[in-house]
Amino acid sequence: MIKTEQITYGDVNSDLQFQGSISFDDESASPRPGILVCHAYGGHSEFDIQKSEKLAELGYFAFAMDLYGAGRRGNNPEESMALMNEFNSDRVLLQERMIHAFNMLKQFERVDENKTGAIGFCFGGKCALDLARAGEDVKGVVSFHGLYDAPTANPGKTLKSTTKISSSILILHGYEDPMATPKNMIDLAEELKSKNANWQIHAYSNVGHAFTNPDANDRSSGLFYDQAADEHSWQEMKYFFEKLF
């Protein structure tokens, strides 16, 4: 039986409390691969829980993290953008929160700490990629319609980085995404190549941003659901993790 639990956790680098969720098959007590689920710009939501439960059905332990802090959620695009931009403007803070959540994932008793992955949607794709960029021992990272700009550190701060990304990377991309242009996609490929990563990019024609979100319906802005890309990208993720673990 698939079980989902809401969890509250802290962070030694912050006074904030965070509210995420975990999903797993409670009929199996043996350790299994753990997947970190990174939310979109609005914060941890029912969407992340649904994806976590689908991962649990596949035999994984899923931890849907909270990057922003308890009660900090975007109720509209403007609020969501403001929350996201706090971290777009401070990639060191984003990295610290990601590493903390990843370390938490590995500590759950139902997780095999040697078999870990991360997936992310939209802004969450950037978060998952930043975990790999930091050189953490996450075996595989999957970005669904993510954002690709490489991180830089603000003055006086130090960004953890690596010359070789050990994680396998799967990019699932809508070719008409206005938030991640073909040039952005190529720039990411060159970045991953320069760091000797094992990477692949799957681009879908006539598909924009947010293609996994059934509530996305703003074609004029390039944000719209695409059922075929949604289903195909999930199958690609399944195959990716099956081969990895």
Automatic annotation (TrEMBL):
Q: Which Gene3D superfamilies match?
A: alpha/beta hydrolase (3.40.50.1820)
Pfam entry (one): DLH
- Molecular function terms from GO: hydrolase activity
Q: Domain Dienelactone hydrolase: where?
A: 28-243
InterPro entries the record matches: AB_hydrolase_fold, Dienelactn_hydro, FrsA_esterase
Q: What is this protein called?
A: Dienelactone hydrolase domain-containing protein
Q: Which organism is it from?
A: marine metagenome
